[in-house]
Structures
1.
Amino acid sequence: MNHGQQASESAADTSAERAALATEQARVDVMYRRLDELRANTEGRLSDAHAQERSGYAALEERETRAFEHARRRGQLGSVEEGLCFGRIDLAHPGEDDPEARYIGRIGLRDAEHETILVDWRAPAARPFYAATPFDTQGVTRRRSLRVRRRRVVGLDDDVLDAERLSDSERSGLVGEAALLDSLQRGRTGRMGDIVATIQAEQDRVIRAPLSGIMVVQGGPGTGKTVAALHRAAYLLYTHRRVLERRGVLVVGPNPAFLRYIGDVLPALGESEAVMRTLGELVPGVHATAHDDHEHARVKGSARMADLVRAAVEDRQRGPRQAFDTEDLHVVTDSGTVTVPGQVCAQVLETARGLGLAHNVARKYVVTTLLREIARAESHLLERPVDEEDLPFLAERLWFEDPVHAALEALWPYLGPQQLLEELYGDPEALERVGESAGLDSGERALLAREAGAPWTVEDVPLLDEAAELLGEDNSAEQAAERRRRAEQEDEVRYAQGALEITGMHEDNRIEVADFASFHHDGGPERTTADRAAADREWAYGHVVVDEAQELSAMGWRAIVRRVPTRSLTVVGDLAQTGGAGGAGSWTEALEHHAPGKVHVEHLRVNYRTPAPIMAVAADVLAVAEPGQEPPESVRTEGDPPRAVAVDGPWEEGLPGLVEEERGAIGEGRVALVTADRLVEEVAAAVPGAARPAPGRDALSQEVVVLTATEAKGLEFDSVVVVAPEAVLEQPRGANDLYVAVTRATRRLTVAHSGDLPPVLARLRETAGV
Ligand SMILES: Nc1ncnc2c1ncn2[C@@H]1O[C@H](COP(=O)(O)OP(=O)(O)OP(=O)(O)O)[C@@H](O)[C@H]1O
């Protein structure tokens, strides 16, 4: 499709091409010189900020903030070295003879005279680079993609935006096709890369959509949902820096391996401040990785679980009759047994329930009020007049008497979320009582029973979060401790200043006040927004990106939406790839009630990952998994034919040879074997050197990895071997799982089956290998 000139290192043989390369090299040299200058300046400012002497806590804080800013800028300037500039557009302006040449890159640069020499890809001025088409040129006469390696311009591809001379691919709307295909053909590394140089027009619309509301990006496999969502996060951080830097951005992905896979994209775009979490990690202190089976997951994901958790909390807020088998509250104190009348207790408990506060916060009211009532009752018992002024002191003393403490604990205990659920799951009677009031049938109630101490599953985490929300924390003690900590820090700084002045070290500038003061406190360095957000369950994020969102249950959505009071979310997924029991059937059904009228669905329809011959196989599977749904259209129309191979006999005899063949065929790149949950360990054991994902192990960077369909979701590999498709199909949402499995390949697909090839893969019978 490249009209006009096309040049590359090997083909730069005409003088016009050589001249174009030389012109671009000269411009790129200017940009790198400027980048070097800026780096040196930032380095200088950073050391100045560190050396700057300040006294007083506020001034020190300001210094820290400045130093942090410079360090961030240094990081940003460091991350743009490779591919600093990747494009140019020539724009015709009315009344001007020569078009304006505008260069697009990873960051914006101005020269010493403040003239723009490079436009940040996220700035409005860069938009025509991605959005101009021959039908809507936006003033662009030519779009040029630059290939720059190690500061050398090694190739150029031009699109002349002339509607008269359209090729087929231009009609289908591809932008910068040569550069796009070049990047799609590269071998996979086990890490997703950025696509700033080749963002397509439909993706650009998603990336630059406004911040507010819930934007759902629905698209088939390989349509760039993940990569577009990450570029959108970088775009939003750039465009709304003030808001988002303070509140932070959360990216939620399906599992730790996936988060590692996408973990380089934002830093490569100069943004390293997003918090990346799986659903199983949303509650600080819990790291759930295992999933429940289909039936358990279905029950735990149901919205009725919110009623269950609420009922479980209320069940622990007892009246005296439930706690002590009597209407009145009898408490043994050091002075004898005192009685608080049932009516008084009932009033206190009813008021507490009506306060609209979280359980542990309302507890403060219950405890202080009842302690005073007990103190009053004790005075009656001792026939002492009740002195209202003394009551707080008497109450405080009673709090330290064990039986009093125990009596109040039985009425309204302090509860943590893990304790609440642990005790509910472990107590059949409580489950019966609470489950019934939440509308669960006996089968569902029985499913929730769990052995004490069993590890939490990912599906438990939204329930724990719900519990934490209803229980709340009485953090008045923490707040007081924080005030004390700040006051102590001020004292330390004052002391350090005095000490340094006395010793004369201050004048010599040999040691800084802050460093000296920090010898005395162990608070550590100031934490970033991301650090603070990650540690705080109640943190309100400025924006949340949810990937593989089709898997989230109603309870999962509650846990996520709770973290963005502004309901500013980017939600990406594919309903046809839903495998989980609690997963979504419709985006509006899942989200509309969280933000009525603010849910907007965008569609991506072009597949950048999987060549057409493999997508034809996937389309057959999709027709069974989700009849009536259209598969996305592949950018790459040609590729190696997919094949089926019958493996008779044990896996360890058939698979290793097959894997070796694939490794030979792809050269540098990655092979994945994707199989049924029940076979995954067996298959991994059959292939020497094959890796399985595990906590702390980066299995995806290994050359051969073995995964279940669930684990493979969102990932891609040069070659995919689907092992035992018949067993994958037997799983609860087997056809959807098989669809996920066959759409992971960027170049080659092999199906290794034992027994008959499943009818849904019949197309492969016609291909070689059987
Ligand atoms: N504009 C583009 N330029 C270059 N590569 C692209 C572009 N868009 C997508 N890709 C590549 O296509 C592949 C698929 O993208 P991505 O994983 O984001 O798709 P997805 O829609 O999230 O897929 P899935 O539903 O299977 O998770 C990635 O390698 C990505 O880098």
2.
Amino acid sequence: MVRLLASVNGVNEAETALLGNVDIIDLKNPADGALGALPPQAVREVVDFIAGQKPVSAVCGNLAMDPGQVLKAAETYAATGVDYLKIGLLREPEAAACIRALGELAKSVKIVAVLFADQEPDHELLPLLVENGFHGVMLDTAEKSTGGLLRKLSVDRVARFVAQAKALQLKVGLAGSLEAPDIPRLLPLEPDFLGFRSALCTSGRDSAIDEDAIRSIRLLIPEEVKANGAAPADFRLLARGYTPAEVDLGTDKIFVREFVLPMEIGAYSHERGRTQKVRFDVTAEVQRVTDNPQDMRHVVSYDIIMDGIRTIVASGHIDLAETLAEKVASHVLANPRVVRVFVRVEKLEVAPASVGVEIERVRQEGSTR
Ligand SMILES: O=C[C@H](O)COP(=O)(O)O
């Protein structure tokens, strides 16, 4: 299940977030950047106000990578009674010593490390976080005015980060000026939570959060549904395409055309260890879910197709264009609303003309992939 974390600046906003049914109330001072902390007393007030209705996290401030200072701040905020502490780790050699300094405290409070997508996050810190008992890790952006997470780090790199953290049993969160169209792109990566501030505000990150804005984000992150004691919804399925229509409205086609990427491909030895340009054309036939599409729940985003291609291309050398086409088709059909997909893969640098393959694949009856 992917949880919705909302960053709030005090009791009033915490109440709004509670009404919006977010999953985690995160405390920070947005006016002081990605890691601006509220005074400990203000954090305590929110912890008392929430009174266990939702988990509460707090950031510990814009800390220099000084182990003593980091530990002191963490102890101060741990004493407020929050469920999670968020500690920002800058891309500096002392970050490792700061992690070690928190090892003892991590036995009594859940600590989540925050790494920045715009500072080349250091994957080598992940095992160290585990060794020192950290609960989780999240990617955020330090600079909020220059675009969101997926503009700072390509989707395949975010996917690799999530997969690596999960393989180490760390809880993993993603944030960074996330907007509605980012959500269907990030849900398939199955992070443990997605974090928001800017998208919840009426006019900019420093303005107040707004109930309607929270609601529109909440709608895009499936909540755990348990009806009559039935098994919880399959979030992997929901995450890939939201709820399929109950009545048959027919299909539409979405497409990505002339998407060219350099990649390692080819069965010849001279094609190894170098990239060549490959062009992708994909058309997906998708079930319609409404006559009145209004938000990301109602569409299958073409970004998901491009994200899949980028991730497949980044995964390493592929010998055959046929293998590549099958992988792309399979990725697109992973979305339960896609009933048929057409994929053309063309190698553009092989011969005087382009060469490649076209395939068409259809969802098998009853298959959820
Ligand atoms: O922890 C999450 C952040 O508060 C997200 O803030 P943002 O959406 O403004 O980047």
